[in-house]
Amino acid sequence: MTATQTTEANRTAFLRNTALNVGRIIREVLPAASAMTVDTSTRTLHEVRDETGNVLWYAPASGRHDLDEHLATIERLLGDAITMGGLRAAGWERTLDGCMFRAVQLPPPSRHARAYVLHEGMVCHVHVDLAPADVSSITLVDPDGAEMRETRDRVRAAIVNSGYDLPHGAMDIECHGSGTPGPSADLAIACAILAAAGHINPRALKRTVLVGELGLDGRLRDPRVTVRFADVCGPYRRLIVAAPSAPAYAAYPVIPGGSVHAATDLSQALAFLAQPINP
After folding, report:
1. Quick one: DSSP state of residue 69?
2. What averages of pLDDT result for each successive group of 10 residues across the chain (279 residues)?
3. pTM for this one?
4. Domains annotated on the chain, with CATH
């Protein structure tokens, strides 16, 4: 990378980080904020909109607004960023109001997802928290707080090789419950990550038990564990398992009216999750 390319990359990163920090401040007052318009001539915040385009705040705002007390901080950050130049390269697009106005998409707010693994010897709830960050990272820990690097790398490879983009941001994944999460938790971890990333609705994971080991190519393997009726009864209505295990698991209905699905790979598991669950 040349010196010029390095400078441009650093400038773009600085501008995106500014949008991240300004977005956090704005969402303290306006949680639904999705985009802002900046007046580059005065280096001030001009407008804030939600994801449907509705105006949440504008300058000069009519009457007093809770965002007003944050404007000095916001506009100091914007002023430092605008003087850097390279706005278009960082996604600060011109608007129809004139060349001095730039529309900036705010980084998505923090997102969360939860998935469940239950079988003989283990009860595990997988919690994923995805927060905006300038540098992406994934941290996965077991119930004792120890990092699970091998599992993290295996699941990450399975997601990418299945054709899904990993989300940009800082991702913290925690496994809570009894027993040590082994390869049988791979499918639940991957689905929780993809739910937090927006590939599936996090609500699709509710009342669903996921059991399966992932290969690096995204195919599912038999984790060689036993799922008992007692493990999945109660609030759960759906069991998704690796295809080689399906004949054995078919003998264990989740609960009356529930369902068992056998998936050959990660993509098929997501397709099952997209189907409506029995009430």
Report:
1. G
2. 80 85 88 92 92 89 75 91 87 84 86 81 84 84 90 96 89 86 90 92 90 93 65 72 64 62 93 85
3. 0.68
4. 3-105 (no CATH), 111-274 (3.30.230.10)
